[in-house]
Amino acid sequence: MSKTRRLISENLSLVDAVIEVTDARIPRSSKNPEIAGLLGNKPRLIVLNKSDAASEEMTDRWIGYYKSDGIAAVATDCKSGKGCKRVLPALRELLKDETEKWREKGMVGRSARIMTVGIPNVGKSALINRLSGSKSAKVEDRPGVTRTKQWIKLESDFELLDTPGVLAPKFEDRTVGIALAVTGAVKDQILDTETLSLAFISVLRRSAPGALETRYGIKFTDEDLDLDILERIGRRRGFLISGGEIDTERAAAILLDEYRAGKLGRITLEAP
After folding, report:
1. pTM of the predicted protein model
2. In a shared domain, residues 153 and 179
3. Which one, of 55, 45, 67, lies nearest residue 118 by Cα?
4. Which of 99, 148, 194, 229 lies in the 20 to 30 Å Cα band around 108?
């Protein structure tokens, strides 16, 4: 962790702007709060990746939220490539004043140098490969792996620095750990599967109640407990054990697996 912070700090003076990659389903929980402090006033573009799995309306709200705070943001899905072509134009807009200064100083043709940062499993490596147009780019998510600085040429006016690693998320806030575990960003062992699924159901009841009713054909009211809903899911799927009891552990595993596979629809778990 400290080594990663040092790598980012040491290389920050070499770049003109920073791309911070986050998960569009959990924009708040997939950001390490230390990153903003490390970057200071360095121009920053937030990339809301995995947007095809997130609510389009909610992603637009997040982009608007960042814009109102003076921060540029774009939505991408690096798996399909959707939205990735917006990244470089957004960087050009972000750096247009700097580019004009370079022209005035006679620095015609100077490439803008960019660094990418982000916590593990948000798609930083996939974005680098999309931008570079090659899967052979040397990319590692483990801090300190790259021993020499590697500049990857993107287009005529951009170079990407592939050196700093990533900052792992902080779990002081229990809701952050739950959000990361639900989306599969960290191992489920942070909580047992059943407890995690109950926390997930609690979030879904606020953010997308219709998803559970549509996917599993169940009904519930505000008076029902989260466990009642999990049991109904298990009963609908026929997850019964000896004595006619419902196998809630199996129901919990299915619920989480189906959300991660997109079978519950495009759902964002956090609002701006």
Report:
1. 0.87
2. no
3. 45
4. 148
